[in-house]
Each structure stands twice: as C-alpha cells, then as structure tokens.
Write a structure and sequence with these properties.
- The chain has about 375 residues and is of the alpha+beta class.
- About 45% of the residues lie in helices and about 15% in strands.
- The protein has a domain of about 250 residues: DD-peptidase/beta-lactamase superfamily (Beta-lactamase, 3-Layer(aba) Sandwich), CATH 3.40.710.
- Strands 2-1-11-10-9 form a five-stranded antiparallel beta sheet, with helices on both faces. A two-stranded antiparallel sheet has the order 3-6. A two-stranded antiparallel sheet has the order 4-5.
Length: about 375
C-alpha cells in the first residue's frame, strides 16, 4: 500500500495563516489600548478621591475656624458682660442709700440739711425729757394770751437755745423800722452764699430783686440769701445791721437773746421762748411783716425765669386757721421751731415751739394746743 498523499487546496493555507496572524496581532494591538483606558479611569478616580478628600479636609478646616470664631466672639461678649456687671456693682456701691440718699435729694432741691444727725442743744441739756399735759413733741413751748399776757401753757420757757430762722423775724423788724426804700434793687453776691451750713438757694449770684421782694422771700420762704443781702446792704453794712438786731432785742426786753447774723444759720443766734413771744407781739404790729410772713406763695421774676416760692408753714393755707404772723426755723442745733400769732376760740394767742422732733411735729403741737384751748378754754 502506498503512503497517503497529502492533498492541499492551493492558497487556503496561506490565507488561514494570514487570518490567524491578524487575530494574534489584533489581540496584541488591542491589549495596550484597554490597559491604557483602564489606567486612565483609575487615575481619574484617584484624582477625584483626592479632590474629595481635600474638599472634606477644607470643610473641616473651615468648620473648625468658624467654631473658633464663634467661641472667641462668645468669650468677648462674656468679658464685656462681666465688665458691665463690675461697673454696675461699683456704681451701686457709690450710690447714696438711706439717709445719704435723702440728704442728696434735699440738697439738689435747695433745702438746707445736716450731713449727720446729731443731738440738738435742748436734747443735750435733757429738756426733751420734760413732760407736759399735752404730750407735746417740742422740748420748749409757750402759749400766751396776746392781750392779757396770761400764760396758758409753759414748758422750759426760760431755756436759752439756738432759734434758727426764727431770727428772720428780727431781720424783718429791723428793715421795716429803718423805713428803707422797698423798691431799691439789690444784687445777690457771692457774699450772700451760705458758708455755715452749705444750704442752697434758687437765688443765683447775680440775681437782682427789690428790697421788698427779698424781705418777702426771707419771711415767707425763709430764703437765706435774701435775708443775708438785706443785712449786707443795710446802711453801715452787716456789722451795723447785726448791732441793730441786738439793740432792738434789748429795747423789747429780750434779755436772754443774742444775734450774730441775720439768717439764723448760725447756732450763735439764741433766745428763749419768753423772749420770742415778745418779738412776735411787736412784729405782729407791723403790717408788712404780717402780710409777708403769712403769704401762701408768690411768683418772682428771676432773670428770664418766673419762680414759684411757697410758705414754709403749711398751716397758712388751712382755712381753719386764722394766722396773723408766723415764722418757721430749722438747723440741727435748734431742732424744728415755730412761732405764731393766731386766734383760737375768740382769743388772740402767741405760740412758741422750739426743738420739735419730726418734720411736721411742730405743726402737730400747734394743732394739739388749739384743740385743747377750744375744748376747755382753760389754762395751766
């Protein structure tokens, strides 16, 4: 048997080889492209991840910065609040309280006040311990019939004590008796400013008023600068005026009385209830003093302003009282004082109250005396 003979189709083998070669070559050519694409995708993912990480980190950083800023702002606000609280505490510690506040308010309103409460001369002498049938708040009292000079009530009437602004009654009497022109214009000067008690006044330095207006304010409103100006402008000056005050006291038989100035701010102005009753009796005979001392109030032109001044004795506005003359007074050494000429139960009476305790107690004493006289019309 002979060997089989391989039969081939012409061209087939060569074409097949070319196809196979192309397949192999195509595979070889496609592999790098796919790899590159895969690599590119991975790189893009990495970049995106990096950006995301950076953004996240940036967000965290910004968030942290914001929190830090908020904390700093809150800290600053807390510091300011603390500072304000400390300032408020310090201010409150300096702010007057209790009596200090009352003193400051009174001073701002132009009222003379004592910086520290202290016993009056009468209290130091024990006169406030003396009792009386009416349980008066005043350490000294005298009630006298003006016509008969009969004493209805007496309590420490001979005691010599500071009389405060009751002094202005003598100031008015000296001015009235001198018959000086009431329309003469007088200027308030620095010399009229109170350096004894530091009391204030609505009559500023430079204020110009007539002598009559100054006398009115001195008696009605107890204006210290007005009273001082009256003495300063008296013929011969202040020394001569004070001299005349003491001369007049002597002529009236006021042997226990002494004056050192015209306002009553000095505790050196002293008298007794008995002497003051004599002063009230004589002053009541002067129409000008009666009118000015009992005037409820008055408007006064001070510069470009119109000021309202009122009476220091509220009883003059009470229709149940018929007061012909009055004067109040107060300094710490004298306590609260009051003298009046009035009519009660058909009788003309002179009342003197010295060293009364409490703002309205002297008025209360006057009311008690009045009710006692009206109800019994008897004397002690």
């Amino acid at each position: 048997m002979g060997r089989a003979k391989r039969v081939g189709i012409p061209g087939i083998g060569r074409k097949l080889g070319q196809v196979l070669a192309m397949v192999v070559l195509g595979g070889a050519l496609l592999a790098p492209s796919a790899y590159a694409a895969k690599t590119k995708t991975a790189a893009s993912a990495a970049v995106a991840a990096k950006k995301a990480s950076a953004k996240k980190a940036s967000g965290k950083k910004a968030s942290g910065k914001k929190v830090a800023t908020q904390r700093a702002t809150a800290k600053k606000a807390a510091a300011k609040t603390q500072a304000r609280r400390k300032a408020a505490v310090a201010k409150a510690a300096k702010r007057p309280t209790g009596r200090r506040a009352a003193v400051a308010k009174a001073a701002a309103a132009g009222v003379a006040v004592a910086a520290v409460a202290r016993p009056s001369f009468a209290q130091l002498a024990g006169l406030d311990k003396v009792s009386d049938p009416l349980a008066l708040e005043s350490s000294v009292a005298l009630v006298m019939d003006q016509d008969t000079k009969e004493v209805l009530l007496s309590k420490n009437e001979q005691a010599v004590l500071p009389i405060a602004s009751i002094s202005k009654l003598m100031t008015g009497l000296v001015v009235a008796n001198a018959q000086l022109p009431l329309d003469e214009v007088i200027t308030i000067t620095q010399a009229d400013v109170d350096t004894v008690k530091g009391s204030r006044s609505r009559l500023a330095v430079g204020t110009q008023l007539t002598r009559g207006e100054l006398l009115h304010l001195a008696l009605m409103s107890s204006e210290n600068r007005a009273a001082h100006a009256l003495g300063r402008t008296y013929p011969g000056g202040m020394d001569e005026f004070v001299k005349q005050m003491n001369v007049k006291a002597k002529l009236l038989g006021m042997t226990a009385t002494r004056f050192v100035e015209p306002t009553g701010l000095s505790s050196g102005n002293q008298s007794s209830a008995r002497d003051l009753a004599a002063l009230v009796n004589v002053a009541h005979a002067e129409p000008l003093l009666r009118s000015f001392s009992t005037s409820p109030g008055a408007e006064v032109e001070v510069g470009k302003r119109t000021l309202q001044f009122n009476n220091t004795n509220r009883l003059v506005k009470n229709e149940n009282w018929a007061i012909g003359l009055q004067k109040t007074g107060y300094i710490s050494e004298a306590g609260r004082c009051l003298v009046m000429q009035t009519e009660v139960a058909g009788r003309k009476l002179i009342m003197v109250f010295l060293d009364s305790v409490g703002k309205y107690s002297r008025l209360g004493d006057a009311q008690r005396v009045r009710e006692w006289v009206e109800s019994s019309n008897h004397h002690l």
